[in-house]
Amino acid sequence: MDGNAVEKIPERGSYTVSVECTNGDAYWDYTNWRVSIGNFSKRTKCNVNFTTGNYFNNYLIAASNTDYSLKKYTHAETYHTGKKAMIDYRYSGKEVNNYICFKNSSCSEDELYRIIGVVPTQNNDTGIYENRVKVIKSINYEGSQNLKSGSIYTKSGKGYLWNETNENVWHISTLYNMLNTEYYQNLGTIKNYIDKTKWYLGAPASSNNAYTTYTSEEFYINERKRGGAYSGGNDYYVNYIGLIYPSDYGYSVESTKINDIYNKSIYENFKEYASNSWLYSLNGGTYFEWTISAVSDNNSAWCIHPDGFIDKNVVYSSNIFGVRPVFFLKSTVQYKSGDGSKSNPYRISLSE
Questions:
Q1: How high is the pLDDT of residue 260?
Q2: What pLDDT score does 164 carry?
Q3: Single pTM value for the model
Q4: What is the structure's pLDDT at 333?
Q5: Nearest Cα to 242, choosing from 296, 200, 300, 205?
């Protein structure tokens, strides 16, 4: 424990745990709080090292050894990732334990968030990449602004226009402004856990029914390309709050469909998404939901269609769609407790 010999395994807590064996492999199973050993051909000795303080991103990466809904992905090189292949960990499947509560007391449905995964991220346009936990609001954000974009879109909730002018530049849109003013300012103490993030605004084209052909990885590459929306603007921006990318949705389908994720378009798999994606499950199949990504060849933006595929719609007009804000936790946030289930969500703490 912190370099000193101890006689028993400590109780669950905020620790980083490593396992070193003289022969064979082993790792720390955070879920069951024990050493998990591999195949040993002969007698071995293992040292288990506990270090006070367990960064939440490291905790989740380690938990992916036993939580098979937290899937590892290796992505292609892109312009905005410094032409480096990035590795991230994403929750995939219909029933996944990825809930997080930012309170010491119980969280209501409106106060719960869910974890998209652990994604290498910069907190500014030139910063180093950090493994940071990406979080989305558990249910649709209805907000309080009395705008045209606050009109009723279903019997039970409210939605927003992507923009109140016919331009699809994200970082000057009314939706961007609402998220980084009204929504951000109302986060209270949650603001202490999050940091500014570089968001990619590469815009996939929509011509020739491209929405029916893009795979998750093709969306990922286009989101991080040089060149942005049809109306102009930057191909990235830095701020606190955004929305999901189409690729985030693409990687949320059940992990046993890994070959389909890479080789088939989201459109070809839309029935699988409607049945086996936790991000679609939040949508509920009753309304469209905006993503952050614009279109490069007309004034539209990409959205989740109620049938389960990624579609595009113009940002203005009467397209009032659902919104679930997204942000990244600081890389120094520590795991405190919880197993990610809705009844026992993850709890985190700030590093001292």
A1: 79
A2: 87
A3: 0.84
A4: 92
A5: 200
| Residue at token pair 């009753």 | 286
* Distances in whole angstroms, Cα of residue 131 to Cα of each of 18, 43, 329: 18, 36, 10
pLDDT at 126: 76
pLDDT at 135: 98
Q: Counting beta carbons within 10 angstroms of the beta carbon of residue 53, is it exposed (0 to 12), middle (13 to 18) or buried (19 or more)?
A: middle
Cα 20 from Cα 18, distance rounded (Å): 7
Quick check: 225 and 202 in contact, CB under 8 A?
yes
> Residue 24 has which token pair?
């064979």
**Residue 94 near residue 276 (C-beta atoms within 8 A):** yes
Spans of the chain below 50 pLDDT: 146-147, 149, 155
Rounded-to-integer distance, Cα 189 and Cα 118, Å: 22
Q: Looking at residue 19, what is its pLDDT?
A: 86
Determine the pLDDT at residue 20. 86
Is-contact 220 78, C-beta < 8 A?
yes
pLDDT at 302: 95
Q: How far is it, in rounded angstroms, from Cα 285 to Cα 289?
A: 10
Going from N- to C-terminal start, the domains of the chain cover 15-54, 70-335
- Give the per-residue pLDDT at 283: 58
| Length of the chain measured in residues | 352
Written as six digits, the tokens of 82 are 């410094």
